[in-house]
Design goal:
This protein is α/β, with parallel strands linked by helices. Helix content is about 30%, strand content about 15%. The protein is globular. A twelve-stranded mixed sheet has the order 7-8-9-6-5-4-3-2-1-10-11-12. It has one domain: Alpha-Beta Barrel (TIM Barrel), CATH 3.20.20.70. The mean pLDDT is about 95. The longest helix is centred in the middle third of the chain and has 14 residues. The structure holds S-adenosylmethionine (SAM) and iron/sulfur cluster (2 copies). The site of S-adenosylmethionine has 20 residues, from strand 3, strand 5 and helix 11.
Length: about 350
């Protein structure tokens, strides 16, 4: 029987969350994530054999749990493109120490049947991404032909099966969808669903990010406050990424994720595992550590645990705090690959 070890990095941050990308493919081509010019028929996505199997993901997750991970989020690419995902969720939900399993999806594959299967398998929470309520803006961003209604139906399906809480991620890009902030806030006001606004980030090297395209968190709050009064709310737990705000009329809460204008690296407890088994300790990393070869070449759990532990103990990432015009140009790993 292996023992639990609580490890910390050089900034005394424990490892608490593991984000697992189950595929680097997606049925959207969001301009801020997988622009069509790059992610086209020429692009070399991972091959089936490159992907970690469910057994490999589960084995590695067990090892992460021994090091302090309590929450797992499945992401991608579009995680619902991965066949039989509920089987993976079932396996992960049996791991000792894992208290919470969630999923981030663009929603278009979340039929009522899929929602039921995910919930029955042990999925607790879901985040569905939606950047606008009008089809024109939505299609401009997602760059595919799906309608907003498809995502709204997915949200209903998640509600019906009792995934709770449901969060909605809206990336705000200046000049593109800031006009959708208020309609989105009004739509989800009083719904029990938590809308979270995310500043457009310089992840990867393909989305042509510029500081001028960031619609700052402070302005997001101002726009909402003009029509729906909000006030800051207490964080649910230390290190919560989204700054919570609540409607003064009791209509629920929103979150604002200010990774660019007010970074939160000091409390970042997240590790990321790519679909092919590379470990990244920061969303903006340039390199990851290949764990797949350890899994496939017969390393025992103790050895893999030591490798992960050594990486975490050396971790000093705080990219968002150190962001400069030079770092923005570094060849960073793509978000569709590493998992949002
Ligand atoms: N495909 C799924 C989805 O869109 O929900 C999961 C993966 S996606 C990479 C995870 C989250 O990252 C989404 O909410 C997406 O909007 C967000 N995201 C992607 N690129 C981003 C960027 N450049 N800045 C901020 N958020 C981004
Ligand atoms: Fe796909 Fe999600 Fe990236 Fe959009 S944000 S391209 S839905 S992975
Ligand atoms: Fe964590 Fe890196 Fe983001 Fe900072 S920049 S919050 S270290 S993922």
């Amino acid at each position: 029987m292996q023992t639990n070890t609580q490890i910390q990095d050089t900034l005394s941050r424990p490892i608490r969350d593991l984000r697992i990308s189950v595929t680097d493919r997606c049925n959207f081509r969001c301009t801020y994530c997988m622009p069509k010019e790059v992610f086209n028929s020429e692009y070399e996505f991972l091959r089936r054999d490159d992907l970690l199997s469910f057994e490999e993901i589960t084995r590695i997750s067990k090892i992460f749990a021994l090091l302090g991970v309590k929450k797992i989020r499945l992401t991608g690419g579009e995680p619902l493109l991965r066949k039989n995902l509920p089987i993976l969720i079932q396996q992960l939900s049996k791991i000792d120490g894992i208290e919470d399993i969630s999923l981030t999806t663009n929603g278009v594959l979340l039929t009522s049947d899929v929602a039921k299967q995910l919930k029955n398998a042990g999925l607790q929470r879901i985040t569905i991404s939606l950047d606008a309520l009008d089809d024109e803006t939505f299609k401009n961003i997602s760059d595919v032909a799906f309608d907003v209604d498809k995502v709204l139906t997915a949200i209903e399906n998640a509600q019906t099966v009792g995934l709770d809480p449901i969060k909605i991620n809206m990336v705000v890009k200046k000049g593109v969808n800031e006009h959708s902030i208020l309609p989105m806030a009004k739509h989800f006001h009083n719904s029990g669903i938590i809308l979270r606004f995310i500043e457009f980030m310089d992840v990867g090297s393909t989305n042509q990010w510029q500081m001028d395209d960031v619609f700052p968190a402070k302005e997001i709050a101002n726009v909402i406050n003009q029509e729906l009064s909000i006030e800051p709310a207490e964080a649910n737990y230390h290190g919560e990424v989204a700054k919570r705000w609540q409607y003064k009329d009791g209509g629920g809460e929103i979150g604002i994720i200010s990774s660019v204008t007010q970074p939160f690296c000091q409390t970042c407890t997240r590790a990321r595992l790519s679909a092919e088994g590379k470990l990244y300790t920061c969303l903006f990393a340039t390199q990851g550590k290949d764990l797949r070869h350890l899994l496939r070449e017969g390393a025992d759990d103790n050895h893999i645990k030591d490798v992960i532990s050594a990486i975490w103990k050396k971790r000093n990432d705080r990219y968002s705090e150190l962001r400069t015009s030079e770092t923005v140009l570094l060849p960073k790993v793509e978000m569709s690959y590493i998992g949002g």
